[in-house]
Each structure stands twice: as C-alpha cells, then as structure tokens.
Amino acid sequence: MDGLMQNVPLTVDRVIDHAAAWHGGREVVSRDADGRVTRTTYAAVHADAKRVSNALAAEGIKPGDRVATMAWNGARHLAAWYGASCMGAVLHTLNPRLFMEQIVYIANHAGDRLLLADPAIADLVGQLLPQVPSIEKVVFLCDRASMPATAYPAVAFDDWIAPYPADHAWGQFGENTACGLCYTSGTTGNPKGVLYSHRSNYIHALMTLQRDALALSARDTVLLVVPMYHANAWGVVFSAPIVGAKLVLPGQRMDGESIYNLIEQEGVTYSSAVPTVWQMLLQYVQENGKRFSTLQRVTIGGSACPESIVRTFRDDYGVDVIQGWGMTETSPLGTVSVPNAAVAAMDDDAQLAHKLKQGRLLFGLDMKLVDDAGNRLPHDGKTPGRLLIKGPTIASGYFGGDGGDVLDGEGFFDTGDVATIDAQGYMQITDRAKDVVKSGGEWISSIEIENIAMGHPALANAAVVGVAHPKWDERPILICQLKPGASANADELRGFLTGKIATWWMPDDVLFVDEIPLGPTGKIDKRAIRAGLTGYKLPFEASR
Amino acid sequence: MDGLMQNVPLTVDRVIDHAAAWHGGREVVSRDADGRVTRTTYAAVHADAKRVSNALAAEGIKPGDRVATMAWNGARHLAAWYGASCMGAVLHTLNPRLFMEQIVYIANHAGDRLLLADPAIADLVGQLLPQVPSIEKVVFLCDRASMPATAYPAVAFDDWIAPYPADHAWGQFGENTACGLCYTSGTTGNPKGVLYSHRSNYIHALMTLQRDALALSARDTVLLVVPMYHANAWGVVFSAPIVGAKLVLPGQRMDGESIYNLIEQEGVTYSSAVPTVWQMLLQYVQENGKRFSTLQRVTIGGSACPESIVRTFRDDYGVDVIQGWGMTETSPLGTVSVPNAAVAAMDDDAQLAHKLKQGRLLFGLDMKLVDDAGNRLPHDGKTPGRLLIKGPTIASGYFGGDGGDVLDGEGFFDTGDVATIDAQGYMQITDRAKDVVKSGGEWISSIEIENIAMGHPALANAAVVGVAHPKWDERPILICQLKPGASANADELRGFLTGKIATWWMPDDVLFVDEIPLGPTGKIDKRAIRAGLTGYKLPFEASR
Which residues, other chains included, contact B427 with Cβ-Cβ below 8 Å and sequence gap of 6+? Predict the structure, then answer.
C-alpha cells in the first residue's frame, strides 16, 4: 500500500524557483577577470535562466542534449547552469585548467552541442573548436562590450538571451532525469563522466544543509571559491539559493589579496575551497597584518587539510575550519568533520586530531571498509581498508558505460581510496588504493611516510612507491627531491624516519631525483614514477 | 535521459540503521508513568525494532496492515514505531487523550490489527476492545513485572519480542510505501487519516535538519515533549536518530516540575512542545527560582506562541524560542520562524515581531495565499487569504478516500487557515478559514479581535464569531466570559477595543456568557457557539 502524500518530483528547478520566490532580492555578486564587481539577485538570475532555456530551445537543444560551460564562477554561469538543467538538458561543466588534449577528449566524449565560455579563455576556445565538431555555437558569458576578438563566430550571452521572455515551462520530467555532467580527472585512463540526476542534486543539497554538515543559513554570505566545474561545486550552487544566502562568485583570481578583499568588501561569513587557496589567503593576511571582520567558518576539501591551516584560522583569526571529503562520483560530499558529542567532550588535542580526519558519514549514505577479498574490516581507527560508499547521491556508473559495472555485490561504489574508520565513526583517508604498498599481507600507507619524510628540512618533495619483492610481495622505496642547495643522503633520511614509523614500514631504498613528476592537478604522478623505475632492482637484488 | 546515480530508495529503515551503525552507543532515555528512568541506546532500539518486525510477521502482519500504538513517548514505543514501519506495515499512532467515541471511530476506520499500548491506559484499552473487533492482540509497552491486571488477554512487550532474533530483512519495498498513519482531530466531521509514506518522512526529516529549521546536531540532547501520536512527532522520531542526538522521552508527566527535573538531570539542550507545556515549565521555574544549566533552544508549535513566553525564555533564561507551524497533513513542519538576513539586521522589537509570526517556508514546499475565487493575493503582510501548500511532504488525500479530492487545480492542499505573508516571506496565521468574518468583501480576523479583547482585565475568555448581515454578508460579535467576581459591560469593551482595531472591525454586539465552550484540545469550540446562537439577531434587526 502506498502512502497518500503528494507526488512532487525532486527537481532542481524548484531550487531556483524557491530562491526567486522567497529570497528574490538576495544578492549574487560576481567579480570578472578585470576585477570588476557586478551585482544581481536570485530573482534576476532566475529570470535569466528562463531566458537561457528559451534561447537553448531556439537553438534546437532537446532534453538530454549536453550544453557545456567552460568558465570561472559568475552569475551568468549560474544562469546558464539552471537554464540548461531546468529545461531537461544536461549542464556539462568543462574545466579550462585541464590539458587541451583532455578537454578535447572530454568535449567529444560528451558530445557537447553548445559551449558557453568565459571571455578570458577565447584563445583556448579557438584551439578547441576545430577538434570538437559537435559544438555548434559559442556563447561568451559577458555583455557585448566585453566580447573578445575571435577568428570564429561567437555571441555575447546578454545578446543571446535578450530576445526571449522569462517564462519557460520547467520541470516537465521525472526526478531521475539527467541534470549535470562532470568528468573526473582520473590519474589512470581517460577521464570518465559522472551524470548527476535532478534527484541526486536535490537530495545532496538537503544533506549538506544539515547543521552537522555545511550548515548554510539565510544569514550567511557565501564565497564560492570552489570552481563550478569542480565536483559539482560541492553542491553550493544549489544549497546557497535554497537557504537564501548571499552568494559571492570570485571569478578567476585566487591570490590571497584578491580573496581577502572580496571577503572584507562583501562581508563573507562562509567560504569553501581547497587547502592551497587558504594557504595563499593566510599568507597574505599574516604578511600584511590583516584581520577578518566577518568570516566565521571555512570548509576545506579536495585534499587533506594541513594542521597549520586549522590552527592558524582558529587560534589567530577565530575562524572554524570544517573538513569535508568527497569526490566527483559522490556529488561530492560524503563525510564532514563536525564533532559528535563524544568528540566535543574531548580535550583540545584530541578534538583537533578528529577535525583533521575526513569526518563522519552524512545520513543517507552507507560506507564500508573492506580487504582485497571484499570482507568488512573493523572500525578501530587502525585497520586500513578499501573505502566503498553507497547512497542516492553516489554514482552507479559512468557516462557512455565507461568503466563498466562499478558497483560491488551490495551496490557499493569503490572510491579507490584506502582509509580507516575510528570508534567515533570518523573516516580518515590513508592512501590511494593503487599507491598503497602491500607488504607481507599488510598495507603500508605511502602518504603517511611521505608526510613524515617531508618534515625533513632538506626535502622539497617526497614520494613513496611499492616495488615488487619475491618474499613480501612489495616493499616501499622513498624517492626524494632536494630543495635547491640542500643536501641529504639515504642514511640521514632513514635515521630521520626511525622511530616515526613502524620498523617494517622503513623504505628498503632511498633514491634522489632532480624533480618528482607532478600531474595536471599538482599531485605527485606515481604512474610516471613507476614508469621511470623500469629495470630498477631493490638493493638486495641488485647486490645479489 | 536519466542520470547515472544509484537507485537507493528513501525509506526510514535507513534512519534507524544509520543511528545504530554510526551513533549506536548514544542514549535513549525514557521515563515511565511512575517517574522511573530507564536507559537504552540507538543500537538496542534498532535490535528491538528488528525483533518487533519478526514478532509482527509471526502474528501474520503483512505489508500495508495497520499496527496501532496508543502510548506516551518511550523507547519501547520507538522500537515499535520502527519495527512496524520498516517491515512494510503501517504504524498508526492513536491519541489516548481523545474522547472514547473518537478513538473507537479511528481504530475501526484504520482497521488496526494489533494494539501496542501504554500500561497506564489498560482500563481505556478495556473499554476500547469490545468496540474495535479488528484488534486481534494487545501488547503492553513494558516488561512482565509492570504488566497491568486486565480482564482481557495481553502480553508484555519484552516477552512478546524476546523469542525473536534481531535480524529481520527491512526495506524490501519502494519509497512511496505507506509508513505511518495519523488522524487529524478535525473540528468538523469525523477525524481523517493522513497516510505518510517512507519518502515523505525521509524528506521531511532532512528538511527539518537544516540550520534554518530545527537544526538538530549530534551534540544535542533532545527532549521530545511533543507526543509521538501528535502530528508525526514533528519528525523528531526521525531527525534525532539521524544526527545521533541523545533522545529523552518523557512519558506522561508534563507538569513543570517533572519537565524541569528531566531537563536538568539529562542535560537537555533542545526541546519541542506546545505553548501550554512551556507556560507550566516557566511558571515552575519562576516560582522556585530555578535556572536552566544546559537548555539552549526550544521549538514551539501547535498554536500561536504568546510573546511573554518568547521574552521570558530569552531575557530571563537565555533560551532561544523557535516558532514552527504545521499540521498533521504537512508531516508536519511547513514554516519556521528563523531570521533571514534582513530580519537579523532589524531592531529588537522588529525581530521579535517576526519571531512571533509562524515563519518562513521550508525549501521543497510551495505556499500561496488566495481569495475565495482562487486568485493569488499579494505578500504585503496585510492582505489575508486562504493558505494553501504543496510539496512532497504534504498530504494528497485522506485514508480511505475520506474528503475526496482535496487538492486544487495546481496541486495545492488547502490548510483551512487564513494567513498573511509579509515582504520577508514570513507567514502569519490570522484565523481559521471557517471562523474568519467576511464583511463587505473584506476579511476580519476573529483571532486578532479575541487576542486584543483578552487584554481587558475582566475577561477570562473571549470569542468572536460572524453573524449573517443583509448588507455586509457578515458582521462580528464578541462573546465574553468574565473572570469570577469581575464585571464589565458592552460599552466598556467597545471602548477598550476602540483605537486598537479598525473601526469597521468593531463588533456589532457584545454578549456575556457563563462559560465559553471548549473542544477536546482546549481550543474554543466555535461550532458550539454558533449552535447556541440559533435565533440570535443583530441589534439593528432585533430593534427593527
């Protein structure tokens, strides 16, 4: 027997409809590449999004067609986002910072029909167009006066939508309809597309709005530093309009001074970004003796948060740092490091230790740790296992069927991470599954050794990789890049690690290289390191 | 084209599963009728709920069958709640405070097969049983030692579930499956049943957990004074386990001293109740010079909140009062009076004036004001209209088809309330639609005149009703019940109202009665008043 409640689909047109109806006058502030600040409102973004839907329909865009954006965060990007999704098209966010060959691959794979681009990347678009024949039209997210000079035809966003009324009929589809497309920058193989549904984005937004998650409020002014092309913008593109927070979209400039000025000028209370941005901001603030007059809390995600950032924000500036974990495939938020009652009652050091973990699972999701055979592992804070996750906001597969069936027998998605979970339910990522060193049936965290080795003053960078071993399966070796002018030898580094890691974690060899290879997102490229080790033999073999 | 996210149904077994897995050791505290406090945990409630499902299956309960509870708030009631719902049966909460004839009507209408009852109401159950032949078995929510002596067969809950393992397979059904049944205590006609779905309860819980709604946290200790049989317990039966709040279930005793002691003993930080309970609590605290050492915020709903409660809590005890509005048909939360940015920037009096309104609409819902012809009315804070509401947590009809099609052409449910909505989106109930006085095409709020009249020191109670008028359609008359020993006449009351209400709102007559009739929930029974006015004529007619 079914319940007798209203059958109202969970679609994201309701998000911007709600913002326009109940927070219509709340500001959306954008800063363009020239540093110029423009102001609009949720009501005006809503009206522009309706015009976008009409403009797309006039271009022949049909439900399910992919409409790409490649742009920094701004109000026109926001209107394009809702304009495409709410008419039933798929809003595909392209990342302009990827290598050209990746962008070309992704745009072709997605079959993007329209490209709405930032005027600052007109040259990049010019290189892209000949290689992506599916793109029928380019719209620059600006007014006519700001149009870049191009050798290819393009139209200004404002001119493109101007002829159309703000009255498109939205949401004439089910809640499982595709809403957005975002590709993972996989470190192996080609990028793969995550196809969000209206339902998953709607539920994800509600999940993140809990007090024990991102806890946005109508009284917040939100600076969305996380790019809209990165992991669904952590859902803030949905959650801020839902609550009626003032939304500040910073454009391209991420340097400390630009971000600081925007925070102070707009009265920002909350912001979300990767650690690098916060490091640049804190450095600027410290060097210039600045204070934050309105900032209350920041969310950090994308990679593990250094303790120094948490301490500096908290102790020197009274700003609370909330660590979140997730990935493109998880909408993205999966865990949030907000204290439960037991942790809140702990002493300061213990609370901080928990805050530095990736955090507690959001309701609606299941999460498990398993060994290579798929057996569940204990939540003891010590035993590492592959991290798998399940829920209505988690990917079930990739666009076009890439990667095949990615769920296990219980319907869980393998994150590719190795993690521990402690007795309080706090998850901590210890390694990428492909980087963990499996030695004698136990798992050695490459990241943990790297982090400790990086404490040595002579090192500019450090990488640990596993090398095949006849008895132990694999053994770790440490690869070091020295700072310019610094020196250190293998024995010094072994001595430095002694006592800081378990004896059986001690690298069997220490190598020095001029430069540790990095991938496009700045992370260590272990695939390149492994390729460079072809023919390498562990010392005991080499000396045999 | 559909998105590629996991197909995980929104069912409430996930709520208690989540609580057991991630907040398993968090306490659930119950106080029984004797004042005895017992402690369990979410993990233990989860295990008991699994046993309940097995016990129900052994009794032949099938998906869709109604399982009734008639009990105060306690941990066994919670286990019964989840045990029934999570196996696909419908948990029907009967209100033991209704008149017997209403309970009989409701239980027969629902076709309840089992009754899980509080041992304190064994006599009431004894009266009920012969009149409700569908009830096959009675289980008292207690252990064997606490079993009441009865002339009819009954079993103790603990004995009933003891034989069964804690491993029932839950959730083998779709999210629209019926989950709970709760009857409205309609002031006209028979009670009607609202049939919640798993989906509606799940979404409602997420909606209420927003920081700008009830904002429960893992660090909260929640005292659920609102009965579990009243309007879905405001969703707290779901939201507290979701976040892992400690849950305190107070049983039957609602006097100020009992509630105060429970708050202090258990370290309660948050509680929800109707105004009467808070009035009794504040009176006790004031008369005995007590302080609250942990209480931070309280939610008030069920009827309009007197300003004195808000001021006393805030100014004397530092407790924030959050007003919520809803009804059984709305799951129940529809609006919450949490400040937006504009209101937060207002002066103290203006903020308080907004806090006393019923509040801002929760995301996911639509709300409109219409006139009798269904035309939308402005949100100017002045124009009253019929309040209609729509969304995935709003009823689409009643159990058994009672009342027929209750939605308008746009799919909105008519709340039966008359309200205004101001420029900040704050809704304020001004009257019940059937009590509003329609005079010359304008609407006069009976409640507003009553509230002002009640400021006269001689009045114990006041009621305003509309009387037919040949020119104006209706005109208001004021009916007064004097305090014992007090005196006042019609002219004095007209003089008292002059300047406080619009001249055309002035009652055409003032009548004095010994006692104004009240309904079962303590509200003025205007139907009875109107029945008593049969043959009454307005002064100008009577004197004609």
Answer: B325, B335, B357, B358, B359, B360, B361, B367, B387, B419, B420, B421
The answer, yes or no, to whether the previous bond of B332 is cis (omega within 30 of 0) is yes
- The CA distances from residue A349 to A49, A317, B218, in Å, are 48, 18, 20
Cross-chain residue pair B195–A392, CB shorter than 8 Å? no
Nearest alpha carbon to residue A376 among A363, A388, A359, A393: A388
Residues 6+ apart with CB under 8 A from B388: B367, B368, B369, B370, B408, B412, B413, B414, B415
Q: In angstroms, what is the C-alpha Rg of chain B?
A: 24
pTM exceeds 0.90 for this model: yes
CB burial of residue A490 (10 Å; 0-12, 13-18, 19+): middle
- Structure tokens, A511: 């190598």
Task: Count CA atoms closer than 13 A to B67's CA, side-chain side.
Answer: 29
Residues of A designated catalytic: 184, 329, 438, 443
Architecture of domain A435-542: 2-Layer Sandwich (3.30)
Q: What's the gap in Å between the CA of A516 and the closest CA on chain B?
A: 37
| Nearest CB neighbour to B212, from listed A14, A217, A398 | A217
- What is the torsional sign of CA B346, B350, B351, B357? negative
CA nearest neighbour of B439 among B411, B414, B464, B404? B464
Cβ pair A203:B199 closer than 8 A: no
**Chain A contact for B407, CB < 8 A?**
yes
Interface contact A218-B212, CB threshold 8 A: yes
Interval B288-337: pLDDT, tens: 999 999 999 999 987 778 888 999 999 999 999 999 999 999 999 999 99
Of A280, A199, A174, A152, the C-alpha closest to A12 is: A199
Tokens of A420: 């521990």
Residue B372 to residue B353: CA distance in whole angstroms: 28
**Do A139 and A56 form a contact (C-beta atoms < 8 A)?**
no
Within an 8 Å CB–CB cutoff, is residue B396 touching chain A? yes
Give me the residue from A246, A391, A411 closest to B341, CB to CB. Answer: A246
Instruction: Report helix, strand or coil for A132.
Output: coil
Give the pairing of strands A360-361 and A333-336. Answer: antiparallel
Whether A7 has its CB under 8 Å from any CB of chain B: the answer is: yes
Residue A1 and residue B64: Cβ atoms within 8 Å?
A: yes
> Do B211 and A210 count as a contact with CB atoms less than 8 A apart?
yes
Give the span between the Cα atoms of A403 and A329, in whole angstroms: 13
Q: Each residue of B416-467: pLDDT tens digit?
A: 999 999 999 999 999 988 899 999 888 999 988 998 998 899 999 999 999 9
| pLDDT at residue A244 tops 90 | yes
- Contact of B464 with B443, CB cutoff 8 Å: no
A541 has pLDDT over 80: no
Tokens 């103790």 map to which residue? B156
Measured between CA atoms, the residue of chain B closest to residue A207 is B206
- Which of B18, B207, B425 has the CB atom closest to A363's CB atom? B18
* SS3 state of residue A236: helix
Alpha-carbon span B367 to B369, nearest angstrom: 7
| Residues pairing with B221 in the sheet | B246
Where are the alpha helices (H) located in A162-297, listed in sequence order? 198-208, 236-243, 256-266, 275-287
**Segments making up each domain of chain A, as ranges:** 435-542
